[in-house]
Design goal:
alpha/beta; Rossmann fold; Serine Threonine Protein Phosphatase 5, Tetratricopeptide repeat; DNA Cyclobutane Dipyrimidine Photolyase, subunit A, domain 3; 3 domains; 19 helices; 6 strands
Length: 478
C-alpha cells in the first residue's frame, strides 16, 4: 500500500499505543466513506503492524447545532453504504445514532478501553476540532488524527492565505510534490488476512444501535437527493461524462445545470477530492509531467488540461482548499474580526448608511423580500438544500444590502446557510459567506452606500447577464 505522508498524521494526546489492546479503533467523524481514505488506510496499516483486527465506529449525534432531519437522512444514507462495504470486507462496523441528547456519552471511551490506539479524522471546521480534542483527552491510548481533506496537506502551508491568487501561487510551487501521494482507491482490499474483530458485548448492551425515533429538528425536512458513497460516485460519473466539457461556460448559468453537485458529498466526506481528481486525470489521460513550470498564479494553463477541466479544478483544489487553509490557520475564521482590515474599515464607514428596506432573519428565512429573484434563491435553499452557484453570491450580497448592519448580515448568512444547506458548516461555505464581506477579494470602485468598497451585485444586473426566467419559474411563488 502507498505510504501515508507523516505530514497528514497528528498525535492528539501523546499517549502510548497499547500492544495488549483487542483492536485498532477507527472513529469516523468527518470522512464518512470507505474509498480513497487516508484515515482508514492508516488504521488498517496499524492493524497489520500490530496483528489486530479493525473496529470502525461511526457515531451520529442529535444535539449539535443545526442538527436536523435533512442532515441526518443524508448521513444515514451513507451509513447504509458503509455498512454494506464493511460487512463484505469482514470488518466490525458500529454505526451508533444517538436518539436523545447525551445518550452516547461515554461510548467512545468504552470502545477505546479495549483498543490498542484510536485513529480519527483531522477536519478543521465546525464542531469537529473541539470534539476530537475532547475525545483525545478521554481515551486511555494514543489518538491520531489523519488529514485526507485535499490534495495539499493542511499543515504544508503554515499560514493563512488572503487571496485565491496567493494560494494558487503556493499550490503551483508546492503541489507537484504531493501529487504522487494519493490514498489507495480501496483500502479495504488490504484487510485480507486480518483477524476478525467484534464490538464488546457490554458496549452493545449499554449503547444499542438505533436509527429511529431520534430527537431532532423536524422543521428542516430531508431533500430528494440521496446521500452516501454510492450516490456520490454515480454523480461523479455523470458529471465527468455529461457536464464537465461545458463546465467553464455553464456553471454560472441559472438556466443550465452546469455544476458538479458534489459539494454535499465532499462536505460529509462521502467522496474525496482525491477520488474526483483521479476520475478527471483518467478522463483527460493526464500525468504530472503535463504540469506547467509556471508559478505565476494563473487560473488557466497550469494543469495542462482543457479549459473546462481546469476551471473545475480551480474550484475543487484552489478555492475549496483555500477554505480549509483558512479554517486551519485562522483561529477566528467564523468571526467578523477575521475579515481583512480594508473590508472592516469600509464596512464600518458605511455601517450607519440608511437601508431601505431592512429585513429580519425570519423574513429572509421565509423568502419574504420584495425581490423575486432573491426569494427564488432562498426557496431553492429551503427546498433542495443548495443554491445555484451564481445565485449564492447574489443571495449573500443582498443580505448585506438589506440587513441593519454588517455583523447582522454575517449572522443571518451563517444561520440560513448552516441550517438549510447540505454543504453548510464547511470550510468552503465559510469562504463563500465571508467573500460576500470582502475576504479573498479586493477593494472595488466606485465607493457605494452600505457596501463601501465591497464588491457590489444586483438582481437587475444578474437578469441582464443571463436568462433567469427558468429559475424564477422553478423557484418563484406558486
Amino acid at each position: 500500500m502507498t505510504a501515508i505522508p507523516r505530514l497528514r498524521i497528528r498525535d492528539l494526546n501523546h499517549k502510548p499505543v497499547t500492544g495488549g489492546g483487542e483492536y485498532v479503533l477507527y472513529w469516523m467523524v468527518a470522512a464518512r466513506r470507505t474509498r480513497f481514505h487516508f484515515g482508514l488506510q492508516h488504521a488498517i496499516d496499524l492493524c497489520r503492524e500490530l496483528g489486530r483486527p479493525l473496529v470502525v465506529f461511526e457515531p451520529l449525534r442529535c444535539d449539535y447545532r443545526w442538527a436536523s432531519e435533512r442532515f441526518h437522512r443524508f448521513i444515514l444514507d451513507g451509513m447504509n453504504d458503509n455498512d454494506a462495504r464493511f460487512r463484505k470486507a469482514g470488518i466490525a462496523y458500529y454505526p451508533y445514532v444517538e436518539r436523545r441528547s447525551g445518550e452516547g456519552k461515554g461510548l467512545l471511551s468504552a470502545l477505546a478501553a479495549h483498543a490498542c490506539c484510536v485513529v480519527t479524522d483531522d477536519y478543521p471546521c465546525f464542531m469537529i476540532p473541539a470534539m476530537t480534542a475532547a475525545g483525545a483527552r478521554q481515551v486511555p491510548v494514543r489518538m491520531e488524527a489523519v488529514d485526507g481533506n485535499g490534495l495539499m496537506p493542511l499543515r504544508a502551508a503554515e499560514q493563512a492565505f488572503p487571496t485565491a491568487y496567493a494560494f494558487r501561487r503556493f499550490l503551483q510551487r508546492e503541489l507537484p510534490g504531493h501529487l504522487a501521494e494519493f490514498p489507495e482507491p480501496d483500502p479495504l482490499a488490504a484487510c485480507a488476512g486480518l483477524p476478525a474483530g467484534s464490538i464488546p458485548e457490554e458496549v452493545r448492551s449499554r449503547w444499542p444501535e438505533a436509527q429511529s425515533a431520534v430527537d431532532l429538528d423536524r422543521s428542516v425536512p430531508a431533500v430528494a437527493m440521496s446521500g452516501g458513497e454510492a450516490a456520490a460516485t454515480a454523480l461523479l460519473d455523470r458529471f465527468t461524462r455529461d457536464r464537465l466539457p461545458l463546465y467553464d461556460t455553464t456553471r454560472n448559468d441559472t438556466a443550465v445545470h452546469g455544476s458538479s453537485g458534489l459539494s454535499p458529498y465532499l462536505h460529509f466526506g462521502q467522496i474525496s477530492s482525491h477520488q474526483v481528481c483521479t476520475a478527471l486525470f483518467s478522463r483527460e489521460g493526464w500525468s504530472v509531467g503535463d504540469l506547467s513550470d509556471s508559478t505565476a498564479g494563473k487560473r488557466q494553463g497550469w494543469w495542462g488540461m482543457p479549459a473546462a477541466t481546469e476551471a473545475f479544478l480551480d474550484q475543487l483544489v484552489t478555492w475549496r482548499e483555500l477554505g480549509f487553509n483558512n479554517c486551519t490557520w485562522l483561529p477566528d475564521y467564523d468571526s467578523y474580526e477575521s475579515l481583512p482590515g480594508w473590508a472592516r474599515e469600509t464596512l464600518a464607514k458605511h455601517a450607519s448608511d440608511p437601508r431601505d428596506p431592512v429585513y429580519s432573519l425570519e423574513q429572509f428565512r421565509k423568502a419574504e423580500t420584495h425581490d423575486p429573484l432573491w426569494n427564488a434563491a432562498q426557496r431553492q435553499l429551503l427546498q433542495e438544500g443548495r443554491i445555484h452557484n451564481y445565485m449564492r453570491m447574489l443571495w449573500g450580497k443582498k443580505i448585506l444590502h438589506w440587513s441593519e448592519e454588517p455583523r447582522e448580515a454575517l449572522r443571518i448568512m451563517i444561520e440560513l446557510n448552516n441550517r438549510y444547506a447540505l454543504d453548510g458548516r464547511d470550510p468552503n461555505s465559510y469562504s463563500g459567506i465571508f467573500w460576500v464581506l470582502g475576504r479573498h477579494d479586493r477593494a472595488w470602485g466606485p465607493e457605494r452606500p452600505i457596501f463601501g468598497k465591497i464588491r457590489y451585485m444586483t438582481s437587475e444586473n444578474t437578469a441582464r447577464k443571463m436568462n433567469v426566467k427558468p429559475y424564477l419559474a422553478r423557484f418563484g411563488e406558486a
